[in-house]
Design a protein that fits this description.
seven-stranded parallel β-sheet, 18% strand
């Protein structure tokens, strides 16, 4: 693959910063668009090698200007965190929809033929099945965040039909890893455990999630960006279920914490986010790029905990 000029919206965020690092490592010219609302997670040595613009992705003109000459756009900018999203449903939807429209305009005006979009497994809603969910199942988005993500998937499909812009929507399943902040469950549990504070689990702890290590998610994203034609949707999932209660026990034991694992009722505003069971199939992904996430949860947690101790 020859060197490309690649724009990454949300490139200073958790997944985005890991993506930027890998693109720089392979020799691409990387342009990052980010407001730095949640800080800058790009390592300092990598940041020196990129072109950075502190710009809101909803600013269509600026995004179009910045994207001139690009070969590909990774659109990873989003509002994240259950409590933040639940408290700001309108802002969440506007950020998603307006951001996508900016990226689409930039692609159309500048002749950029490929967009890779960070969607979410949240589009599957409260579906609780006896098997993993795949891309063919009828989705059931319940939250403003998931609805906006699903809207943008449909928008991208239409963009290919009308404008010929190739794109892929990636439905990430509970990505975790280094540089993730405590709005998410794994860093929150580690923070509580290392402080010997109660590890707070919403509900019974029997709800399951499919935790996908960030390096696996980024590798899949890059391979998809290099190969996608037309419009496609892919799950990026580890294909393994873990209960939240089990996760709390694992982290407590790893950290040798004296924390109590405390089960509490979820606030009402979190209801639509408290899904009983969710794990995904990456079979379509593997067929398309001959790769799927393969880092088991314990290995990924070991990396995170080692970094916390260093």
């Amino acid at each position: 693959m020859s060197k490309q000029r690649i724009v990454v919206t949300g490139g200073a965020g958790f997944i985005g910063s890991h993506l930027v690092s890998k693109l720089v490592e392979r020799g691409d010219e990387v342009v990052v668009i980010d407001t730095l609302l949640r800080g800058n997670k790009i390592p300092k040595d990598v940041f020196k090698q990129i072109e950075f613009h502190r710009v809101d992705v909803s600013d269509e003109q600026k995004v179009a200007d910045i994207s001139k000459g690009a070969d590909l756009i990774y659109h990873f900018a989003a509002i994240l965190g259950v409590d933040i999203v639940a408290d700001n449903p309108i802002e969440t939807m506007e950020t998603e929809v307006n951001g996508m429209q900016s990226v689409a305009r930039a692609a159309i005006e500048n002749g950029i033929k490929t967009i890779v979009y960070a969607s979410t497994s949240g589009v599957y809603g409260h579906l609780a099945l006896e098997k993993s969910v795949d891309e063919e199942i009828l989705v059931d988005p319940r939250t403003s965040y998931a609805m906006a993500k699903r809207y943008n998937e449909i928008y991208l499909a239409s963009l290919y039909e009308e404008k010929g812009i190739h794109s892929v929507a990636i439905r990430f399943f509970n990505v975790y890893g280094l540089r993730q902040d405590n709005r998410m469950v794994i860093p929150r549990f580690f923070e509580q455990a290392t402080q010997n504070s109660p590890i707070t689990v919403y509900g019974s702890g029997e709800q399951t999630r499919d935790f996908t290590y960030v390096d696996d998610a980024v590798k899949a994203s890059i391979l998809l960006g290099d190969r996608v034609k037309g419009f496609e949707i892919f799950n990026v999932a580890n294909e393994r279920e873990s209960t939240i209660g089990e996760l709390a026990e694992i982290i407590k034991n790893m950290t040798q914490s004296s924390s109590e694992i405390k089960y509490i009722n979820a606030p009402k505003k979190r209801y639509d986010y408290e899904v009983g069971r969710r794990f995904g199939s990456s079979a379509k992904l593997e067929r398309f790029i001959n790769y799927k996430p393969n880092t088991d949860l314990q290995t990924g947690l070991d990396v995170v905990y080692k970094a916390l101790r260093d």
